[in-house]
Amino acid sequence: MSARRKVTVVGAGNVGATCAQVLATRDYADVVLVDIKEGLPQGKALDINQMGKLLGYEPNVVGTNGYDETAGSAVVVITAGLPRGPGMSRDDLVTTNEKIVKDVTENVVGASPDAILIVVSNPLDAMCHVAKNVSGRPRERVVGMAGILDTARFATFIAWETGSSVKDVTALVLGGHGDQMVPVVSATSVGGVPLRRLVGEERIRALVERTAKGGGELVQLLGTSAWYAPGAAAAQMVDAIMLDEKRVLPCTAYLQGEYGIDELYMGVPVRLGAGGVEAIVELDLDESEREALAASAAAVRDVVAVLTT
After folding, report:
1. Is 51 left (phi over 0), alpha (psi -120 to 50) or beta?
2. Which whole number is the average pLDDT over 9-32?
3. What per-residue confidence (pLDDT) applies to 177?
4. Where are the domains of the chain?
5. Which residues are paired to 10 by β-bridges?
6. CA–CA dist 294, 299 (Å, integer)
7. With contact defined as beta carbons under 8 Å apart, do 44 and 55 qualify?
8. Is 177 a catalytic residue?
9. What's the average model confidence in pLDDT over 280-293?
10. Structurally, what CATH architecture does the domain formed by 5-144 represent?
11. What's the rounded Cα separation, in Å, for the pair 248 and 263?
12. How far is CA 38 from CA 6, 44, 73, 290, 298, in A?
């Protein structure tokens, strides 16, 4: 019996499996991969375990169609849900995935009453509300993954634009996960040099636009949603919590007055550690950024209004 701590990933599709794979390579926790499709989580777990010999980590990934094996998880990542299909409205997706996320949340909370929940299912901001309401957890313990992914995309485009190492790009994307996201240009730099000193406003606007439509660009190319960067983004949040790193990362957190927004999940910088969201970091935004964040909040409220939970 392993004495290592446990992380559960619900949904063994592309994002969930990538998250499980990245966590396995980190080698500090056992990973349980859950999916309703028989054979899928078991097969992916077996494959990830066999990769351990090649990449030098211990094979401790379990695939299952139930929740017994998830008992006692410290963190649960929820990726379950349907992707948006042709002719499906955003409201249709909300209603369908609300049922799935509600069911998953009830099951994981029953098996792991102390787990911190990381929500990845879309529409992300609304699904965080579902997980929080159904679980009855305090806001610190239900957090969404969006800003880390959007920030990674923005940083990648900035690195290419400036011919710099992506490791030296500091960027931040706030707001709802979608076209209304708010890249904070005033807080963006390359090697400590503000982005506006390196790149003209017109090019910055193009980078911001490409970031906001980043998910759509990938759907056009792949015919489905992205998974490598989203899976790794969720794993980075698990690392911050499990290893108590106190990282300041853009996450979807429940605001209670911060940034002038109340009782809504929004993407903001948070300090992520063993307690989950240990602090919400309030940046000094310029006027246009404040207005964009308020508009993003209004768009998120519209989606949340469709929920029944």
Report:
1. alpha
2. 97
3. 78
4. 5-144, 147-304
5. 34, 78
6. 9
7. no
8. yes
9. 93
10. 3-Layer(aba) Sandwich (3.40)
11. 21
12. 22, 11, 22, 47, 40
Task: Pick the closest to residue 155 from 201, 214, 202 (CA basis).
Answer: 214
Could you tell me how far CA 168 lies from the centroid of its own chain? 22
The pTM of the full predicted model, rounded to 2 decimals, is: 0.96
Tell the residue number behind the tokens 């409201």, with chain if given.
Answer: 91
Distance CA 4, CA 22 (A): 17
Q: Work out whether strand 75-78 and strand 5-10 pair parallel, antiparallel, or are unpaired.
A: parallel
The CATH number assigned to the domain with range 147-304 reads: 3.90.110.10
DSSP 61-130: EEEESSSGGGTT-SEEEE--SPPP-TT--HHHHHHHHHHHHHHHHHHHHHH-TTPEEEE-PSSHHHHHHH
- For tokens 């139930």, name the residue: 66
pLDDT of 49-78, one tens digit each? Answer: 999 999 999 989 999 999 999 999 999 999
Q: Do domains 5-144 and 147-304 have the same CATH topology?
A: no
Q: Give the H/E segment covering residue 218.
A: helix 214-222
Tokens (6 digits) for 244: 């108590």
**Measured between alpha carbons, how far is residue 163 from residues 59, 167, 169, 198, 200 in Å?**
39, 12, 11, 11, 15
Any residues with CB less than 8 A from the CB of 117 and at least 6 apart, and which?
75, 76, 78, 105, 108, 131, 135, 137, 141, 142, 143
Using CA atoms, how far apart are residues 263 and 129, in angstroms rounded to an integer?
A: 10
Backbone torsions φ then ψ of 282, nearest 5 degrees: -100, 115
What local confidence, expressed as pLDDT, does residue 90 receive?
A: 72
Q: Name the one residue in this structure whose structure tokens are 């404040």.
A: 290
Among the listed residues 141, 153, 177, 271, the single catalytic one is 177
